[in-house]
Each structure stands twice: as structure tokens, then as C-alpha cells.
Fold:
Amino acid sequence: MKITSQKADLQSAIAICSRAINSKSTLNMHDCVLIDAKDGRISLTASDSDFVIETVIEGNIEESGRIALEATYLDKVIRSLKDNEVTIETKENYRTVITSASSKNAALPGKDGTDFNGMPPVDRTDSLKISEFSLKQIINQTIFSISPNDSNVLMSSESFEIKENVLRVVSLDGHRISIRKIFLREAYGNRKLIIPGKALNELSRILSDDTDKDVEISMSDNRIIFDFGNTTVVSQLVDGTYFDVDQMIMTDYETKVSVNREALIECLERARIFIRDGDSKPVIFSITDNNVNIKVKSAVGSIDDDIPAQKTGKDIMIGFNAKFLVESLRAVDDEEVSIDFVNSKAPCYIRNDEDNYVYMVLPINFVNVD
Amino acid sequence: MKITSQKADLQSAIAICSRAINSKSTLNMHDCVLIDAKDGRISLTASDSDFVIETVIEGNIEESGRIALEATYLDKVIRSLKDNEVTIETKENYRTVITSASSKNAALPGKDGTDFNGMPPVDRTDSLKISEFSLKQIINQTIFSISPNDSNVLMSSESFEIKENVLRVVSLDGHRISIRKIFLREAYGNRKLIIPGKALNELSRILSDDTDKDVEISMSDNRIIFDFGNTTVVSQLVDGTYFDVDQMIMTDYETKVSVNREALIECLERARIFIRDGDSKPVIFSITDNNVNIKVKSAVGSIDDDIPAQKTGKDIMIGFNAKFLVESLRAVDDEEVSIDFVNSKAPCYIRNDEDNYVYMVLPINFVNVD
Structure:
């Protein structure tokens, strides 16, 4: 194989497809980027068994071929070059020489590219379109409440449910539920997909914020395929039935408060200073007419703050994990947020009238306020 | 104690004096910032026994007093405030309340400030002046070659030698020596000081790049005092006699090369990609007429590059730790650098005709080049 391309293109392609690489993987091949040059097309691919990212770059192919190179070293060598034009050429025993005007003989020990799985064959007949911006946003607005624990595959994934022209994304981790709805431009057949959180997390980092660029999402053979720009991301779907979240969401409430979102976040962030990570100490909300009082007290300091609020219904005192509330509040755009409460043992719901988001957070029991 | 000051001033003062705090210290008091308000002067001080940083801020003193607060939490609370004006007030049992317009009751458990050593009394009669820029620069140009190993206190310190109007700073770690000379504006009495590297490292991070602002350096009672802006840094001096580096520096050479500094750094940085940290594998220099060839080969890749050079004297092949050479080359400003060699077992010297810097680096033996 012998190709010539631009340093910037190579660097960005390596960065994109390296997102598939699982550094904890013991399979050596998974730390590699596969460069495949044939029929006028140069692609870089990396994969973690059920998760594959491929990106295509511009360049000249002087000799077709396929070589696997360790991603870390390939990246470092490309970055170290100060010239724009870079040539990558495979020699005897897969030894691969990387050349630019000022660097003649940087070489990496390559691996046989034919041993390496590239992009699996995929069928794109069943597909829908959404802007890169919208997909990135709906992932970021929900992904924080998946479980980091891989042992529960449903909780570490997200539900993507399509009904006509509505896409509903749900995540939950046993302490909270995040639900987001957006309208698609066209109506599609109804379907329920469960997508691994890892794939969505990495996908959201590659997607641009561009509302004018589309992602084509295709479903085939228990795989989901995201095509955008020069990049294709393929993930295995998760088998099974997702949680029936509609059953878990109550619409009745005893107390409803409307509060400035930024002020509430600021106060909760200050409260978090005094709660160690992993500590289950709650922040205590005391909600009365026109006021939300927030208290926390630990060995290292305390907070006792008031935030003006509009309240309807009963007074309530309730404890929460400050981090969970902050993450949900950050996922909302509105200046004022409305929060519904039932009682101090029941979850609260951050939601709006248009019903395009619901964030449920379970309370934490507390003994005394002090 | 009750003071009112600006958030930005407090935040910057905490950041500055926290540089004295040794996070590995087991003495709790050392994690504290002491706020001392009296006679119209508000100072923040932190110390690590033999190393003290004090900085003075603007503000109003409503009630004089002295309180010690944990630096981490004080910093986080001040940062979390969104208002400019901040009041810090000590209540019963040293409990200290931090208030701004939007935050009424953040409180930290303070400690009795009278238990806490602030700035020691210092004598400033024996002093000299140098710009903040020059002091910061000469530290940064030498500090990289002190030994990180605290067990050899001389090697983990720097020698500051003043002879008339010349300041010579020397550091060495057993593998290399860095020597820098600058002219002072006036002549001072001759003296030799040994200053702990830790103090110089932290000092260089606080100093500005301003050539118009001066640092006043005073010596008294085995202490060195740096006064600049609103800040005072005091460090214990190291007892003992520093190494006689003049005996270690040879002026004869068998080979002299002149080479573009940036090109050499770029090439050595690329070579370093293939050498693991802590690995003693050398980069091999083969210096012939008009050419410096640089080679390295490891399991993860190889480099074999040529850099144009002017050479006088014998051809030479010699191995070096790439990191050591790169650090010395980065400390030099010149576009072209001159390097002197004696033989493959003797150190090389990066130096200029004006003799205001000498960087000596010991070679590494190598068996074969391959």
C-alpha cells in the first residue's frame, strides 16, 4: 500500500475512528487503525468487536493495499510532522514508513490488514434522517443517566423509540429517568431500538453541532448504522425489551414549584462542594410559598440558601442527590423550570407543558436537617 | 474577623498562596490559608514549614481578626459565587460565613488563626533587584535539570551565585548540568546561595512575564525573601557548598556542529515517541560533514532522519537520552545552536560564544546501531 494525503485529514480521521478503540481490550488488533486503500477510496477503520467507526479521507493511492497500525503511535507520528503532505507506504513484513518533506524515515511495525475486520456489510434500505445537531443534542440530554455498570446491559443503554414522526429517547439508572422527545421531519414505521450507551457516547463526540448536516440512521440485522459526513458508525443493538417507563411516571402532584434554573444550579453546585463523591448525603429542599430553601451540612462546611420561587400546593421538605438534580437541570434549556413533587418519599419530576422532556429523580431519605 | 473584598482578588490571592501548600503534608494546618485582617491590611498566607507565601488584597475590614480556612473549600466556595463583592465573617467557634448577594449562608469550619504561623519576621536590608521577567526566565531555563529526588538536597536545589553585577544560576542532576548567566543592573557583594527547587518552581509560576516590574530579593538569617507586587515568597536556604561545576565543564572539543534548533527538537521529539518513559534507550547521533543523522529503533517503531549541519572537526557517533537534549534545547532561544563533542564517552556541551549559557548532557553507551 502507498498513499499520500494531508496531515490534517489523517490526524482528524485517526482521532475519529480511534473513538471505537477499547483501551481495556486484550485483543491487540483492537488497538489498531486499519488503513484500506482501493478503487480510489482511502478509509481508516477501528473497531471494538460490536462497535465500528470508519472514516474516508481524500488522497492519492499509488498502490492499493490494507495495513493495520497501532493507533497511538500512528497518531503521534502524524502529529509530529510539520509538513502538510504525508506519504504512508508499506514495505516488507508490513513495516510501514511515514514520510513528509522534513521526515524521511519514521517507521511503524504494521500488521496484516487482511486479518483485520473492517466495516461489516450493511443494508441501508430501512433508514431515517435527522440533523447532526439534533442527534447530538438528544444524546447529550439523556446519556448522563445511564448506568455506568456494564453488568446491566439495558441500564447502560438508551431506548430509541420511533412512533410516526416522533423520536423518544429514554435512559434510566435506578435512581432517575430521563425522557426526551423530538419531531422527525417525516413519519417512519414504529420501532423500538436499544442502543449501547458506549456507542452513543462516542457518537455524540464525533457529531458536529451543525443543524444543516444530516445523519442517516439505518437499521439492519440487529445493527444500527449512522452515516454522516465521511464517517460511518456501526453498533450492535441490544436484544430485549426496555423498561416500561410510562408506568413509572406519575402525572399527579401535591406541590409544583417554578424556579430560575441557573440560580438553582448555582446553589446546588455550591452544596456539592461539601458532599464527597460517592457520599449519599442529600441536600434538603424546604419548599414553602415563594421560597425554596436548600441546606446541606458536612464536616467540611455548610450551605443554607434561599431561592425565590412560585409554588402551588402543599409545603414539602425532601432530600436529593445534588449531582442527579444538577445533571437533569443542565439538560434543560428553559430559563424557568417547573418541578412537581408528590411527597418526601416519592420522586420529583422536572417537566414542561409541551411534554418534550421529563426528568424524574428519586429522593433520598434523611433523618434530621440540623 | 469580618472583611469585604472582591471575588477576583480573593480567588487570585488563594491561588497564589496555595502554591505553598504541600498536599502530601500530614499537618492539617498546612492545608489552610490564613486570613489576617488588621491595621487596614488584609493578607492571605499559606506555608509549608520552610516555605511561606503571603499576598495582600484590597478590601474593607469591619472587624480585625485572624482565621485559618481549608484552602480547597475556601477556593471552591469563592469560585461558586457569581457576585463581585464577598464578605467573610467569623462567628462562634471559628465558624466562618462567606456571603455574597446571591449566597447568604455558605459556612466553613475555621481554625484558630493564632495557632497558625504567618509570615516570619524578615530583614530586608541586604537586597537586590531584578525584573519579574528575568527571574522567571532564568528559573525556567535551568529548573528542569534539578533532581526530583528529595534525598539529595543539593541536587534538588539550584545554586544562585552573585559576583558583582553577574547572577549565575546552576542546576544539575547527575546526568546533565544547566548554567545560565545574566547581568544585574547594579553590582552587589559576592555571595553563593542554594535555593530549594520546590520554592523556585512555585515562585516561577507566580511571577509575571513583565520586564517593567521588579522583584526585590533579600537575604537574611538563612532565608531568601522575594517581594513583588502584593506578594512575598520566603524560603529557607540550603546549607552546604554547591558542586564545583567549573571543574566539570570542558572547553576543548574534537567536533563542533551548528544545527537548526527547531529542526533538531522536532526530530528528537519524533524519536521520543518510540522510547518509553524511564527507558534508557539512546537516540544515536552520527555526525558527518554537513549532516547529523539521528536514529532510534524499538519494538513500536523507528526513526532514521538527517538534519543539515555545519561541522568542524572529527566525525562522531554518540548516544543520548532524547528527553535531556530536548529540555536543554528548549531552554535556548537561538535559531542555530552550537554543540561541542569530545568523544562518544564524554558529555556534549550546548553553548554560545557569549558564554551566557552552557548545557552539558552526558552520553549513553550503546551497543549496536542496527
Summary: The mean pLDDT of chain A is 93. The two ends of chain A are 71 Å apart (CA to CA).
